Amino acid sequence: MSFDTSVENKKRNRIKPGQNIWLFGYGSLIYKVDFPYIQQQPAHITGWQRRFWQGSHDHRGTLESPGRVVTLIANKKSACFGVAFKVNYDVFEHLDRREKNGYLIHEVDIHFSSDEVSRGLTYIASSTNAAFLGPLPELEIARHIYQSSGPSGDNKDYVYKLARALRELAEPDAHVFTIERYLKEMEQESS
After folding, report:
1. Which phi and psi (to 5°) does residue 150 adopt?
2. Quick check: 91 and 1 in contact, CB under 8 A?
3. Cα separations (Å) of 6 from 97, 116, 123, 158?
4. 64, 93, 99, 107: which is the annotated catalytic residue?
5. Is 116 marked active-site?
6. Beta strands in 60-178 (DSSP E)
7. Buried residues in 139-149 as b, exposed as e (16+ CB within 10 A)
8. Tell me: the pLDDT tens digits for 157-180?
9. Domain 6-190: CATH superfamily, name plus number
10. For tag attachment on the chain, is the N or C end more exposed, with fewer CB atoms within 10 Å?
11. What is the pLDDT of residues 101-126, one digit of tens each?
């Protein structure tokens, strides 16, 4: 599969012009909301965990030296917390371009604090996409991130912003917070 999944996402998206749908954000969509939305709520999805296993050739790295960003990995015992946005069909023109580096739209059940569950969409970069980097020990992931930078800035800033956003939601994520801790230790050592 090509790095650019924007054309494939147009085919996968089944909502029609004028329709609204919930979109689940679990990475940069939590802290970089550069699209219009109708409503926003903390939410979670079950059966998935957030992991820094996806390469970023277009935002937090380059083709020659990709950074690492989060994707969702199936895990029946896990829940991934983030933010759900009720959006209109029109936002997907922008989001499909933004999330084009290996991410595909998937339908998911989104759980809200009210115990309401709604069918919605999220972007997931599976292990079969061309930009997938896969698992490493968290210290190795942090070392990779520490050295990466791309058009959207230093890769470590992505981690810091995501960790801050999760704290604001009062939703701990051991994987994100461990990588953040390693990055801060590396910064202290280099200063």
Report:
1. -150, -165
2. no
3. 6, 31, 11, 22
4. 99
5. no
6. 67-88, 104-112, 117-124, 149-150, 153-154
7. eebbbbbbebb
8. 999 999 999 999 999 999 999 999
9. Gamma-glutamyl cyclotransferase-like (3.10.490.10)
10. C
11. 899 999 999 999 889 999 999 999 99
